[in-house]
Amino acid sequence: MVPGFLSPSLSRLGLWASGLILILGFLKLISLLLRRQKLARAMENFPGPPTHWLFGHALEIQQTGSLDKVVSWAHQFPYAHPLWFGQFIGFLNIYEPDYAKAVYSRGDPKAADVYDFFLQWIGKGLLVLEGPKWFQHRKLLTPGFHYDVLKPYVAVFAESTSDMLDKWEEKAREDKSFDIFSDVGHMALDSLMKCTFGKGDSGLGQRDNSYYLAVSDLTMLMQQRMESFQYHNDFIYWLTPHGRRFLRACQVAHDHTDQVIRERKAALQDEKEQRKIQNRRHLDFLDILLGARDGDGIKLSDADLRAEVDTFMFEGHDTTTSGISWFLYCMARYPEHQQRCRDEAREILGDRDSFQWDDLSKMTYLTMCIKESMRLYPPVPQVYRQLSKPVTFVDGRSLPAGSLVSLHIYALHRNSAAWPDPEVFDPLRFSPENASGRHPFAFMPFSAGPRNCIGQQFAMVELKVAIALILLRFQVTADPTRPHLFSSHIILKPKNGLYLNLKKLPEW
Ligand code: HEM
Fold first, then answer.
1. Are the C-beta atoms of residues 154 and 461 closer than 8 Å to each other?
2. What is the pLDDT of residues 385-409, one digit of tens each?
3. Residue 201: per-residue pLDDT
4. How far is the CA of 463 from the centre of ligand 1 (A)?
5. Alpha-carbon distance 117 to 484, whole Å?
6. Which GO cellular component does the record give, naming just one (predicted)?
7. 435 exposed, middle or buried (CB, 10 Å; 0-12, 13-18, 19+)?
8. 3-state SS of the chain: helix, strand, coil percent to 5?
9. 477 pairs with which residues across the strands?
10. What atom of ligand 1 comes closest to residue 192's alpha carbon?
11. Kind and range of the H or E element at 341?
């Protein structure tokens, strides 16, 4: 109980505190309103779909089929239109090659309103860094994707894919469709852990399995958070069961990364261990990061190392999972292209039983099919920037510095001015003759310009190896009783799994 003589001062304190909260709330509201006014004024020359007084376009965006909704808006409003997530976050949504070029050929920073959701887990790694530090990291990390480093990964991808295919043989015996997306996800994460931490030779231990589960959980929770407006505020989110689960998974992921870095650093001090690392069949990504030095001999700090490893684990597995899975979906729908890819893979392999690095460049039809499936189903459907300086577009309209821009890759890839009959699956769009005259910013699955995907070669190698091996072992057909629905935003994923029928092919 509070003694009587204290109660007047306590209640005064309470009054002061409530007053302060009210004033702070009021100031925050004013700053949000001013921001809204500034963003709205910047986009006043761009007509767009009507907005809800409170949610903006958020309700439409949250609904199933929102990606196709944006495609229909793109028909109505050529080049670009405003897109409001609630009342205070408004992007100019663009989907036209010249518009994309005007912004994405420059190195403007990422829009904090979106990318700050990633910080708790991946920290300030390459994906969210900007300015000179981004430039320094990009230079330090680029050698990690040199083809000499990627070459041995062919065997790593083949090993993880074969494990998955053995499991699929059992599932296929049941003679009914099953969700391939989650299995491909496991396979891609398994490969990435081998390439990042070098777990290929010894297999995954208990600690790695916890990490593996934490990473799967984090990507799922992050996607869910982006889609749920009530979770956008940090303070509210950390108080919810989902927010607390996210923090716990972050802790597991960070502890794992820190420990692997510590152990690897200790091993590098030991001559015997050093020899073992040198004799390993491939350098893993951590070896490259630990050895990276800039022109002045400066290396990455421990915090930077962790951020880069975590960024790679985030960017590197869900994206390839999406790429491989939607490709299989396309093959199931278009069996004639599936058969051509299979024939090509068989011819390249001949009587050998594993693919080599040099085989990959011979997979020309398969590569065209991969590109066509990434056109229709881009694994990263939308990317966001905040302009550091004004931009003027081809039609003379402009945006001032500070404006938010969203590149809608999904709608850009269905822009009928660049892609006649955009809904038709036609790999020949990517034949050298047909591709030569195309606008360089019409096809951007890996984004473009200085902030393009650093992992695109890695991804293409993984996609080719995994897909060729899958098609050699199985015939895939669609399950018409399970139509796909997108759950999107960060990575293009199916809402309720991606169900396909798989039939084991006879040995040829
Ligand atoms: C099919 C697979 C992939 C697709 C479609 C893809 C797509 C993209 C896109 C669109 C961006 C630009 C993001 C933005 O502007 O916000 C990006 C950036 C990035 N990607 Fe990928 N990615 C894939 C695979 C990978 C892999 C395998 C890795 C690493 C192992 C990776 C690492 C990164 C990193 C670090 C960035 C940031 C680069 C920078 O800003 O300098 N990605 N990716």
1. yes
2. 999 999 999 999 999 999 999 999 9
3. 42
4. 14
5. 27
6. endoplasmic reticulum membrane
7. middle
8. 60, 10, 30
9. 501
10. 30
11. helix 335-349
Quote the ligand 1 centre to 222 CA distance (angstroms).
Answer: 17
Length of the chain: 508
Q: Residue 114 has which token pair?
A: 């979106």
pLDDT for res 122: 94
Verify whether ligand 1 is closer than 6 Å to residue 467 (CB atom).
no
For the domain 36-504, what is the CATH superfamily, name and number?
A: Cytochrome P450 (1.10.630.10)
Going by alpha carbons, the residue nearest to atom 31 of ligand 1 is: 455
Q: Is 312 in the pocket of ligand 1 (CB under 6 A)?
A: yes
Q: Which residues pair with 486 in a beta bridge?
A: 494
What amino acid is encoded at 239 in this protein?
Answer: L
* CA 428 to mean position of chain CA atoms: 26
453 is in an annotated binding site: yes
Q: Distance between CA 342 and CA 503 in Å, rounded?
A: 14
Residue found under tokens 């509070």: 2
Is the minimum distance from the CB of 310 to ligand 1 under 6 angstroms? no
Residue type (1 letter), 338: Q
* Separation of CA 497 and ligand 1 centre (Å): 23
Residue 90, strand partner residues: 84
The closest alpha carbon to 118, from 271, 284, 315, belongs to: 315
